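Purpose: get a first structural picture of the assembly so the mutagenesis plan has something to point at.
Setup: three entries, given in the order below. No constraints added.
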Amino acid sequence: MSTATQSPAKTPRGPKPKRAFSPANIMIYGTLFVVSIYYLLPLYVMVMTSLKDMTEVRMGNIFSPPVEITFEPWVKAWAEACTGINCDGLSRGFWNSVRILIPSVVVSIAVASVSGYALSFWRFKGSELFFNILIVGAFIPYQIMLYPIVIILRELGVYGTLTGLVMVHTIFGMPILTLLFRNYFASVPEELFKAARVDGAGFWGIYVQIMLPMSLPIFVVAIILQVTGIWNDFLFGVVFTKPDIYPMTVQLNNIVNSVQGVKEYNVNMAATLLTGMVPLVIYFVSGKLFVRGIAAGAVKG
Amino acid sequence: MADMSQSTPTREASPAPSSKPPLRIFRNLNAKLAATPMILTALVIFVGCSVWTIVYSFTNSRLLPKTNFVGFDQYERLWSTKRWMIAVENVAIYGILSLIFTMIIGFFLATLLDRKIRFEDTFRTIFLYPFALSFIVTGLVWQWILNPEFGVQKIVRSLGWESFTFDPLFNAEIVIYGILIAGLWQGTGLVMVIMLAGLRGIPEDIWKAAKVDGIGTAKTYTHIILPMMKPVLVTALVLISAGIVKVYDLVVAQTAGGPGIASDVPAKYVYDSLFQRQNLGQGFAASTMMLVMVVIILIPYFYLQYGGKKAK
Amino acid sequence: MDQIVNPSISIKNLDLSFGAVEVLKNLNLDIADGEFVVLLGSSGCGKSTLLNCIAGLLDVSDGEIHISGKNVTWEEPSQRGIGMVFQSYALYPQMTVEGNLTFGLRNARVPKDEIAARVEKAAKILQIEPLLKRKPAALSGGQRQRVAIGRALVRDVDVFLFDEPLSNLDAKLRADLRVEIKQLHQQLGNTMIYVTHDQIEAMTLADRIAIMLNGNVLQFASPYEIYNHPANKYVATFIGSPTMNFIEGSVHGGKFDSALGTHSLDGYDFTTPSPDGPAWLGIRPEHMATGDEAANKPIQLEGRVEFVEPLGSDTLTRVTVGDQHMWVRMDGQAQVKIGEMIPIGFSATQAHLFDTTTEERL
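Result (structure tokens, whole complex):
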């Protein structure tokens, strides 16, 4: 480059020569590369193990790629793996999770977005107090509330049912989601709200006609947050449902950690991957929105 | 205008400001209705259920909750139970180490990504993807990697180091470190992202000023940027801490509390007491202790928040 | 001020407090039909709060608000017969210009052909016909504010409320739109209340200006009156740039005593019968004569030039008289040097006297 033509004796002129491989850069990229390997390794191991048959799993090591690729473990994990007496595979847990997920996401976001909207524009006496309790409540360990909630759900006749679990997800999703929506609506200029009131729109009119259409991004963030959160839930699934509607995470744990029978590590890894697939796909597809979701929830909180 | 004045003749007639205003409860009625789920959640679940459990932790309930109050008996029993002591010790070790390492690694990775590098998005995606996975998946995959028969131990031995031993999940002494490795893998990405957001919130002028003053990059980060990020650091600290007390899924999936009871944690102790061992009183007392732990963690947080505001 | 028989807007004993903070204190204001009133004051004086109370966007603590003869104190904003224009335009971002204009009418279930007619009329007046199908994001600042005015226009109401509508625009556009608003007022003849902190907007637009401080109206009068007979020292300071010069001293038997000597107040129109006592004498920089003219003025001083700001049309000069700093507005062509001694003169008729303790006009 220019360094070759310019002798150091000359006065500095023009662009300052830069080295592409400065020690600092080598260190930065080198470190990032090594750390990346640590983070990627488990995913790699899962995929490799799930594509081997059991003899190869026992012979080789977990990092070596399969000599002969087989999809048998995947099929088995999806359709044949046993939990207790049921041997219809993870597919059941998958569909249970879907049935839990959809109403939970819809209800929790609908309730929280309206709460956040009310908290931003329609404050009433005590509204901030309730909100503060809600936010502090997010730090209370779930364990202390589990048993009374079981009693409440039983009294309502929804313990062990889908409805009960949807309620639980709505309740525990509320702090973070309400915060998310409240912060978002707080960034909407208040004059917009005032203009709509002068134009004669009321509580629901402003929400549906003005606020909803302009807050689609935050709804996407909330959906991402809730889909991954609810899909990954284990504790509520195991406490508030019965075995026939166990979500996928609970069933996965039961399959992999069951003490009966021969351990089929390849099937286990295929099952684990299958369970992780939904949040992973969402993560890779949503990209920056996922980051925005957790940043919005975390930094402002 | 004309029909409007007709439709409200009473108000038209109201002459003095001293006449009664519209009822307060009905003002803003829609907002109050819409906020009902939030109010119920706050009062009935977060306050009500917590208080219920605390009250019943002073009873000798076993299979069913009973109002037979026995004072601090459950707590005395709890703190003299070996299993609980192990659980508390585990969560303390896991918590302290996880705090230290997550913060350091998270900040370090964030500063690397902050250097306006190429492929920033790719690296960030790689560091954060474990956070999208559940603790169950995390626990199971690390259980497999740390499996002494097939995993890391076997590979190192096959490289020639025959006596190499690394079987944390089967060694009661170090099992909590095995869980820590998995926890760090899952959680550091989140802290990195939070820290990165904090770093990006630092005005560019600070960097220019530091450059003009001739302060090196590393020193700028540690001496200038880090103190400026106090709110973000506090947030990250609180998030990690609150998560630590709740650690449950990871342990269940990775070790099921084993070997024996060596990797038990308070959350698991509570669950087992409530739903497996029909010992409600113990479960209530243990969960109340979990709340106490959280409160102990949160008090300095509120202090820091409050102190931070006062300093401004 | 109390002679208005059928006020368009009448505010009676209005109080507003947020907790312990009193924002508006026992405020009374009568605005005539078709009048253009500007609420002027620095930030925090309560002017926007008052406007929001009139609009019904804030609930008052006490008092009454009447619009067009009707007590609207407890009415919803949309029921008060007002249209409002906001500083940030507050256009609904996801609706087209037409959608923005018609939103209120659709909420009020106005018939479709009526809506179309009103939109057409408003768009014509404001010359925004070509923009009707666009979204607000595709408009310039000036166009957005026009649409915002249009939204008030289509409501076909008696009263328009403007909340600092030009503050977000650049200086050139602000001047243009100011003229347009003035023309609009002349064309429509509606009552308009306009909040601003910009004294030029206030002076140019208003029939009457209400100058506010700490939730009180200090003076409610025409721009001429406010400029020439400020009711107190605050109003005197607030209007005019650079601000009025003040000399501390005392009034004694038609004379003003100060460190600068004793000067006759002949020709000054006292508002109180017994003005004697400690007082401020105020004189606007533009009423201070220099050079040969100074010699013709009844009150004469001499000042040392310490600072010169040439503006082209005028030259602002800061001088020291005795130990006092004063601004003097001189001709743009004036040549003065720093350190030079220049003669200054003014007459008592253009001066203002304020009581030192109450700060009220004497």
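Residues 82-114 of chain B form the longest helix (33 residues).
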